[in-house]
Fold this protein.
Amino acid sequence: MTDHPPGLAAPIVLVHGLCGFERLFACRRPAKELFPGIRRYLNGGGNTVLVPRVCPTGAVATRAAELKSYLDREVGNRPVHLIGHSLGGLDARYMISRLGMENRVLSLTTVGTPHRGTAFADWGVTRFARVLRPVFRAAGVPDDAFFDLMTDSCRRFNETVPDAPGVRYAAVAGVCDRAWLGAEWALPARIVGRAEGPNDGVVSVASATWGGRTDVWVGDHLNLINWPNRKARRKGEWTDRTADYGRLLRELRAAGF
């Protein structure tokens, strides 16, 4: 990218979703970032960008508490802007509303977040929870996140986790059309499509819509955070996502931040 995003006074925090990470290592060297290229691009505008790591499969309440602890440690009482991908958007909402962070968060932009749950979680939990839950427990790995993503769970979540009046909420939803629909997304996209309509391969536009503004990007659930879509790249339709994040920051700047 040759352009630069605007610089915001407050730090930007990228919150990962289910099974997420800050970065993966191979032979003790960084091999893959969860938000590839995005932190570097936003840093190029003079922004401070943080990427906390929380329990990959823990409950929303657990992950939210870990996110708050990270912010307490890393930024203290400084205000921040949050960008939460997928489950990370629910973590951020819970933290703001239920953990007393409404005065320390200026904005939350959720990206592919299933605010109303996802039919794919309903499908998967119904079929596989009885078999997989003992395996997770034997390995000492929490499985609460999968249940928190179910549509009934998110309905109850929305009833008890109201938006904070002083925080700017916005969202990004994805639409994974045929040119982008690789084999890895075919099954969940079909399940979600039948139940909820257009989707990014796992989260519908209807579920991802939240706050005062929702942008709709063409791409799959991981492409929304700049992971390449192999099928789109083979067809010559792959577009780097970093400029889209620059536009998100410009919207925040235009809103007075």
Observations:
- Residues 182 and 230 are 7 Å apart (CA to CA).
- Residues 21-31 have pLDDT under 50 and may be disordered.
- The radius of gyration is 18 Å.
- The first strand starts at residue 12 and ends at 15.
